[in-house]
Specification:
Distance between the termini: 18 Å
Shape: globular
Helix content: over 70%
Number of helices: 10
Number of strands: 0
Strand content: under 5%
Order of helices and strands: HHHHHHHHHH
Radius of gyration: 20 Å
Length: 278
């Protein structure tokens, strides 16, 4: 087979998987669970902030590179309102319920990845749910690293460059470099998900291929959709106060499509590898 024939065969297989596995329907489910998980997850993050050298603005700044403007305002307003009503005990027993609720999105990803690999979930409910909670905690940890690296890197860079009077030049360079940092963090997150969520042993190289697609695809779709919403669409005039929620749901839906497509790509290429080694 030529490379052109292989590509056509791959795209044909991917198309039928999209239809047979109802990827767009699964993405709609994921967007619903992502929305339910968003605020518990952010509350957990914002609760940890006082113990770290980062601020609430750092989290919003990290998210706003990809999320549409209306969605960012909606997230910031609601999280600030929720946090203002909380007392100092949120990091005690309450965080367990928060993590359990936030793991709903991760649990949905587990089901989507199992369908991509055509495997049934035969693990006990508590094991699967516990795995979802652990993966959620791992995502929080990775997200915190993603916050700390840019914050420390920016402060160190400003300090060093200020010695030579190049502070403004550094800030311009940094705004470019932080996209590379974000890409690496996203690649790690996607690889982590593809490696551990399916009820099947996955090789690292198999997870990396889908992670590359998802990283590039998610950044492109997020930036493109954000540009469209900020410059062309006016969901507020159409949906009123629900406009920000609609924008957020569409963004989550597109993110779900990219995430599941990455899993399907891993599954297809993994099957090809198995056939070559038979």
């Amino acid at each position: 087979m030529t490379k052109k024939q292989n590509l056509f065969s791959f795209l044909k297989t991917l198309y039928f998987r999209v239809i047979n596995h109802d990827i767009f329907g699964l993405a709609a489910q994921l967007s619903y669970f992502f929305l339910l998980s968003l605020f518990p997850l952010l509350i957990t993050l914002f609760s940890i902030i006082p113990y770290l050298p980062v601020t609430e603005e750092d989290i919003i700044y990290f998210i706003q590179d990809f999320a549409p403007g209306n969605a960012i305002q909606f997230i910031q307003t609601n999280v600030t309102d929720i946090m203002s009503r909380q007392n100092g005990t949120i990091l005690s027993l309450g965080i367990i319920g928060t993590l359990w609720s936030a793991s709903n999105g991760m649990n949905a990803i587990v089901r989507a990845m199992n369908r991509a690999y055509n495997v049934k979930e035969n693990r006990p409910f508590l094991i699967v749910r516990g795995l979802s909670v652990i993966l959620t905690i791992a995502m929080i940890f990775i997200f915190l690293i993603a916050l700390l690296l840019p914050v420390f890197g920016k402060h160190i860079g400003i300090y060093l460059f200020s010695k030579f009077g190049f502070t403004e030049q550094f800030l311009q360079i940094w705004n470019t470099l932080r996209w590379g940092v974000s890409s690496i963090i996203l690649f790690i997150v996607f690889s982590f998900l593809y490696l551990f969520t399916p009820n099947k042993k996955i090789k690292c190289i198999s997870a990396f291929r889908g992670a590359i697609f998802s990283t590039i695809g998610w950044m492109a779709v997020s930036i493109g959709f954000s540009f469209y919403v900020n410059h062309f669409a006016n969901y507020t005039s159409t949906y009123g106060g629900l406009g920000a929620i609609i924008v957020l749901m569409i963004w989550f839906y597109l993110s779900g499509v990219i995430l599941i497509m990455g899993g399907e790509i891993n599954a297809i290429l993994g099957e090809d590898d198995d056939r070559k080694h038979c």
